[in-house]
Amino acid sequence: MKNMPDPATALHATIGQRVDLIDTPAPVVDLDAMDRNIQRMADFARKHQVRWRPHAKMHKCAELALRLQQSGAGGACVQKVSEAEALAAGGVTDIYISNEVIAPAKLARVARLAQQLAVRGGRLAIAVDSLEGITRLAEAMESAMSDAGIDVFVEIDVGQGRCGVLPGEPAVALAQAVTQHARLHFAGLHAYHGRAQHLRGAAERREAIAVAVLAARATRDALLVAGLPVPLVTGAGTGTLVHEAASGIYGELQAGSFLFMDADYASNEREPAQPAFEHALFIKTQVISCRDTHAVCDAGHKSHAIDSGLPQVAFLPPDRALRYANGGDEHGLLFTDSPKARLPSIGRMLWLIPGHCDPTVNLHGHLIGVRGGLAHGVVERILRVDARGALT
Amino acid sequence: MKNMPDPATALHATIGQRVDLIDTPAPVVDLDAMDRNIQRMADFARKHQVRWRPHAKMHKCAELALRLQQSGAGGACVQKVSEAEALAAGGVTDIYISNEVIAPAKLARVARLAQQLAVRGGRLAIAVDSLEGITRLAEAMESAMSDAGIDVFVEIDVGQGRCGVLPGEPAVALAQAVTQHARLHFAGLHAYHGRAQHLRGAAERREAIAVAVLAARATRDALLVAGLPVPLVTGAGTGTLVHEAASGIYGELQAGSFLFMDADYASNEREPAQPAFEHALFIKTQVISCRDTHAVCDAGHKSHAIDSGLPQVAFLPPDRALRYANGGDEHGLLFTDSPKARLPSIGRMLWLIPGHCDPTVNLHGHLIGVRGGLAHGVVERILRVDARGALT
User: Fold this and answer.
1) Which residues in chain A touch residue B99, judged by CB atoms under 8 angstroms apart?
2) Rounded to a whole number, what is the distance in Å from the CA of A102 to chain B's nearest CA?
3) Chain A contact present for B340, CB below 8 A
4) Which residues of A touch B21 (CB under 8 A)?
5) Is A341 on the interface with B (CB under 8 A)?
6) What is the CA radius of gyration of chain B?
């Protein structure tokens, strides 16, 4: 356990402490549920014979990236150079920055990190989607005082509408540009469809990924015709991974949220082949004010992200359900919609399932890992969020 | 400047650095604009002869709380015990926890902090809205190994619909309960109307605060009849402070956002008497990907809060305006709605005005303070966000 001297982030939980004594609000990981999620994902990847490189933008903990590797994951994905640096400092040596990096100051750090990881027997990969980006990356790699190389994935837009070049010839042109630089190794295609993850209907997600698979396959074939073999197509998230895994074209799954499962992913219509991932990240909260109309708890949107919906109140029977409404930065409002339900009284502890894990984890310096369940378990470990606030 | 060894939060800005070299995304404070906002607020409070105790839940920096005190502010408000501890560690000695605290473990910390501040010649205040809360607070104060007291404000709900008892007799009963405990000093009424701050129309805000003033005055009068003088009525935010200041009943303004001014507050229809607060907090961002349809920048909702709307792209002439759309945790999408406007190219720096300052600041370990304007200025100071992530 790493104690922080900073009073603002001082942990009010200790190893061996009973769950009911953890002060609120607090991010708590059900380690048993998390371990089951890892096992389900490992089994799934083995069955489909695909690599998995879970996205560490979700959990941001070097300890968890290493834990996933021990269970078969092949390295970690990140979105930011500073996330890669934080994981590397924590012992992770196989890292893919699945995003475009443009600033020369950052690319110099990329080149240094590539060298550091190579010395440790690991490797660094990065995504590109422009000639400008490739040129700048090559310059940074050549300016570095080392002969380390970097794996380069060409990002194609398979329906996300964000970064990436269009599939087909634009991607071929970029891949050819990559091969012009000695330090850049063309590693394949990045074909992640983020928007598809959150389509609620199973059929919608299936159709979206069918289109992504067509685009990825056509691009791979065009590259082959141009004389460029494609070592790997990488992509997929927790919402769609069954389709990428069965596609025959994706060789690597980047899904990260399966580890903690959030309320948003759980709202998707279930795909039968999808492993039954469980919620493993919760916000423990406490009622601090009570009226006839509503109760107020101490977890607001400084405790959990609200970009993908408000949290849900967990572990209550349907006829006692509580509805969480936004009460601002530091408060949540609790309402009952059932006449039988009673509002919780002052001091009552409740558990929230966050709408979206990734930005929720980013709000916290540590996650409190509990073994033995949330009703009667104890604190087993404190997980440091190494890449919290890692933006550059 | 405090350097952090943690690679994730390593600062990629240094004192004396030119603004254009600050790496992105980065939270940047225009110190000249901030200083003008402080002067405007100090002049306003002096003219209306009211105290001002700016809410530090917004800036979370002990250095800024002290800066405000030097300009006439009377201490700082916070929402959390850990925020109070962080400010106290940074030298602030007059702190009001304007929120209900219920957990015995936290109340023990409250009692310790009350003692620490008293020793340093300062004082601690706290809000209550239940008999249970008063009893628990009194027990914690009496269990502490000191004779320090604490100022206690009874929170009344003047339209917010969150914490607080109803105005009138329920508040009288609580104030009487406070006076039953030797260590608790009844300090007055907390009558903050948070919802009113964000009503867009000036007339709507005026009417909402007129009702709040009636409720606060009726409660004060009922307390006087019961033999309890009311030393202070405290409340008001940046959206409504002109009305509380002119009310004759509010003696203290808690407004905090005026310091940085966010896009949400700037969207309010301006009240003529309102000081002309300027935007002083910006997110510097950079274009990392470009297509015919849109550009993508490196600031997503891990860089800025989106609870009160998306950020706005600053400093562009109307015919070159860019519209920011949510691109997820780490990306922003930029669109042009004008046929004349051109999408920015890769590497272009842009400035975003966050929708809501408070949770935006909470995402960052440091704020980069710039002197001399955002076009040609230099980094003058790094402001440590002492109470970042202070939730308990």
Assistant:
1) 288, 330
2) 6
3) no
4) 105
5) no
6) 22
CB contact under 8 A, A359 and B329: yes
Q: Would an 8 Å CB–CB cutoff place A286 in contact with chain B?
A: yes
- The CB-based long-range contact list for A6-9 (8 Å cut-off, 24+ gap) reads A6/B86, A6/B386, A7/B82, A7/B85, A7/B86, A7/B88, A7/B89, A7/B390, A8/B60, A8/B82, A8/B83, A8/B85, A8/B86, A8/B386, A8/B387, A8/B388, A8/B389, A8/B390, A9/A365, A9/A366, A9/B82, A9/B388, A9/B389, A9/B390
B154 to chain A, minimum CA–CA distance in Å?
13
C-alpha span between B387 and A330 (Å, rounded): 13
Q: Is pTM beyond 0.90 here? A: yes
* A198 at B interface, C-beta within 8 A: no
Residue B56 to chain A, least CA–CA distance (Å): 13
Query: Which pLDDT tens digits describe chain B residue by residue (392 residues)?
Result: 333 445 565 677 899 999 999 999 999 999 999 999 999 999 999 999 999 999 999 999 999 999 999 999 999 999 999 999 999 999 999 999 999 999 999 999 999 999 999 999 999 999 999 999 999 999 999 999 888 999 999 999 999 999 999 999 999 999 999 999 999 999 999 999 999 999 999 999 999 999 999 999 999 999 999 999 999 999 999 999 999 999 999 999 999 999 999 999 999 999 999 999 999 999 999 999 999 999 999 999 999 999 999 999 999 998 899 999 999 999 999 999 877 779 999 999 999 999 999 999 999 999 999 999 999 999 999 999 999 999 99
Q: Which residue has the tokens 């936290």?
A: B106
Question: Which domains does chain B possess?
Answer: 7-28+277-384 (2.40.37.20), 32-260 (3.20.20.10)
The ipTM is 0.95
Shortest CA distance from B11: residue in chain A: A392
Which residue, A163, A196, A175, A188, is CA-closest to A251?
A: A188
Q: Under 8 Å CB-to-CB from B101, ≥6 apart: which residues?
A: A288, B81, B107, B110, B126, B133, B137
CA angle B55, B58, B61 (to 5 degrees): 90
Identify all chain B residues contacting A296, using CB atoms and an 8 Å cutoff. Answer: 100, 162-163
CA separation for the pair B156, B136 (Å, rounded): 19
Q: What residue in B sits closest to A102 (Cα-Cα)?
A: B288
A302: nearest CB among B133, B289, B391:
B391
Closest CB to A7 among B82, B162, B307:
B82
Q: Helix, strand or coil for residue A309?
A: coil
Query: A294, A288, A347, A363: which is closest to A325 by C-alpha?
Result: A294
**How many Å lie between the alpha carbon of B7 and the closest alpha carbon of chain A?**
5
3-class DSSP string for B123-168:
EEEEEECCHHHHHHHHHHHHHCCCCCCEEEEEEECCCCCCCCECCC
Of the partner residues A6, A82, A288, the one whose CB lies closest to the CB of residue B100: A288
Interchain CB contacts (distance < 8 Å): A and B: 204
A 56-95 → B contacts, CB under 8 A: 57, 60, 79-80, 82-83, 85-86, 88-89
Chain A residues inside the 8 Å CB shell of B79: 329-330
Separation between Cα atoms, residue B166 and residue A160, nearest integer Å: 49
DSSP character at residue B198? G
In angstroms, the CA A263 to CA B50 distance is 46
Closest by CA to B208, choosing from B168, B159, B166, is: B159
Chain B residues with CB under 8 Å of A386 CB are: 6, 8
Q: Check residue B112 and report its DSSP letter.
A: H
Gap between the Cα atoms of A49 and A249, Å rounded: 12
